[in-house]
Amino acid sequence: MAGRFLTRGTLDLTHDRPFEDQTSDRENLRLEARLETEGPWEAKAGLWLDRLSFYGNHNGREETRLEWWETYLRFRGEKVEITLGNQLIRWGKADEITVLDNLTWQDLRELFTWRLEERQKPWPWLRVQYFAETFTVEGVFTLWPMWPKRDDFDSDWAVFDHLKKTLEAINFPLSLRLDKQDLSPSLRNAEFGVRVTSSFKQVDWELSFLHAHDRSFYYFLRHFPIKGLELDHPAEPLKDLLRSIGQIKIVGTTAQVRRPQDNILGLAFETVWRGWGLRGEVAYHTGRVFLKKDLEGVQKPYLRLVLGADYRFENGLYLNFQFLTQHILGWSEEILFDPEYDSYLFLRLSKSFWQDFLEIRLDGTYGITTRAYYLNPEIAYKFRDNWEIFGGFHLIDGPQGTFFDVYDNNDQVYLGLKVNF
Amino acid sequence: MKVKWLVFWVLLVVSSQALALTPEEIAWKVYHRPQGRDSQAESLMILINKKGKQKTRQLKIFTREDEKARYTLIRFLSPKDIAGTGFLSIAYHNGKEEQFLYLPALKRVRRISGSFRFHRFVNSDFIYEDLERHYPPKYHHQLLREEKIGTTPCYVLKSWPKKKKDSIYGYWVQWITKDGFLPVRVDYYDRKGRLWKRFEAEDWQKIQGYWTILTSSMKDLKKGHQTVLKIEKIIYDQGLKAKLFTRRSLEHW
């Protein structure tokens, strides 16, 4: 039996808009039990209790969830391993920025302010692995369609919160609602994939194919009820609204959200060279979702490449950087946020002190094309075994019209505690 | 008669010279010393700070050797925040080495690059390099003297890397038992020649015919903290399977 308790409180650095939240807090408790037998069978059961709340404006809210954590039954044969149940499966070789790690359910309710391993949640899969002498073949299958968890309204990180609040502030005669298509588990909505992994002369590589539902941050919106709106300044929709007020036509109150499917073909590698760790991934999507300026969704083929390297200097400084470049095939001017070619640099620096019990780290993402950035300096101190206190800043900014610009006012300071037991 | 004695003494001196080991041979003897076809140990790692405050880590260490390489798998069992962390090292007999790390939080095995060798091993005073066998051809060796540690006769061997990248240390001096070629004390010096760390075996015994260090410590003489490593139980030659030393096994937690 094991468990973990994690909590984090945040405070906005500025309160520049009346409808913005000022604080948030999150408590997360995870309990896990493992059963191993002398034979080939093993089982795991886990529960996850999560509370997230936002305060500071009249729309503040709280959400508590109780869900299964890793809960599965596994058969471990000589060459074959079969696992059925809720599990965390990680594909790909790259670190924080990955384009192939698509088998976990991502919690994006606080966007990317948690690290990847904290955002990832288990999902019910049937996983079959065959371990040959020189390679491994793996198949995954689920009846349950998966997409990331986002908030629509009522949080500073929610997709349509800024737009809705802006409309409300000017008494715009529309109360925006979303009609989400709730896909039921079925063969038609099933997701499946196959992966082959192997090593050649100290180069680990993998080839994968995944048929899944779209994992992007954007909704695939059909019939957005405000017609004639062209959003050029998503962080300040009022500007665009006033500019196009003459052409705007309201045809309803509901935007329909659909869950389209996507195929992802991937190739990844990992190796070491002269003290450096080198990793890379390429993904080709047959239909990735993007948002258009009229706020309806569109699917486009998409090519993504991420290359990364890491190194630990003798003085203990750790450097990890990644370069991500992505290309929308068939791009057009109507696409909001994403340029045809888009590149990002990710940097992680950390240095440890006091026998590694104190760590200072900095994560930074910079949009080469968009010139937007996200910075996360953090300090963490393990004041006794199993107890870690951490604190830092989330700093986000970007030029007008960029995705990061929408969250420009969400700069925050945070303090947290992690306890393992 | 005198001539016979002279010949006898000359032969004795020549043969003893011929039988004396060169520094390189001693280094190879250490490298190849019998450690069993495989072993399984339950150990404690105790971190002791300057003030004497202790933190304990519980771990299992598995080893295996075949015609290709020597394999080592280390799995941490406690404390809870590092429980499940696994480290797999494959030291090929040609001096090449592969290292893999499994962190339960990441749910993924990562290949570790050479630059990690100089980093602290889970908060201890051991760095990854200290856990490796030093492949003799990568280092220079010099036999300084022979002396006893307690009542145990030892070779005192100085070694230093031919290339800077092969060690974070400037040089190290080992006290190696003549019986069993076990390094029972190692003084590590930094690149400026200052004494930095000291490894000392406090208890070593022959178990199932293999010399084994049961209690040892690594002291950081600059910072005043130390790590004690205790083997509580060890079993050799029980026929551990090769599949235990794979990435599949490392990921199994």
UniProtKB/TrEMBL annotation, chain A:
It comes from the Bacteria. This is DUF1302 domain-containing protein. It comes from Thermodesulfatator atlanticus.
UniProtKB/TrEMBL annotation, chain B:
Residues 70-251 form the Uncharacterized protein TP-0789 domain. Keywords: Lipoprotein, Signal. Pfam families: LolA_like. CDD domains: LolA_like. InterPro entries: TP_0789-like (IPR033399). It comes from Thermodesulfatator atlanticus. The keyword Lipoprotein applies. Residues 1-20 form the signal peptide. It comes from the Bacteria. The keyword Signal applies. This is Outer membrane lipoprotein-sorting protein.
